[in-house]
Design goal:
Length: 240
Amino acid sequence: MPAPRARRKAPLWLAYGLLPAALGSGVTAHAAPPPPAPAVEEGRVMDRVVAVIEGQVLTQSELEMEARVALIQRGAVQAAALPLDEQTLRGALELSINQRLQVLSADRLQAFPAEPAEVAARLDAVRARLGGEAALRRFLDRHGVDRDALEAVLARGLRAERILDSRVRLKAQVSEAEVRHHYDAHRDLYPGEFDQAARTAIREELVRARYGELAAQALAEVRKSAQVRRVAPFAREARR
């Protein structure tokens, strides 16, 4: 039986550290009903504060927008229109906190800028997933945001990904000896020869596992001294 084929690579930040499991599952057609509408005062909808991160206010509408963008980037295009349940919002909150804290730290050093071309590429990818320019405009109109706001979300995600990657990727690499040891210890999973395909598959598996551990450690370190206050009831439940 041939050795397992190497899986298609995906950005490791999507799998570890920056994207909690609650967001990874996506949104289904059975998503919970939307939360009660915010209070209306003099004909205007008042947004709700969800959390305060190092003095920066995060509102419910911002959190929902960021959750939808993260899900669409993972292929859950139905998130563009369906209501988001509290589990998804709790996962989105952790993602938002992680991203904001990392970017705030980089801002102090004026490090890891997001190049306009890179942000444009991510916008193109979101547009393609939604089904084109008209669909993108409908998405923005539906949620009351403009293109600049979407690009800001994409830029922050891009920077957070790069910051985490700079701290973790080199440390996550594995040696040929570690690959061989894993192969010998799991021969039932790799019945074929110890060829290039097997080595590649094992290396990717080990790197992903180590990356996840190191990413969790790096983010825990960033959050250790951070001032984060969760305000909304579901947000307080996310506290760890």
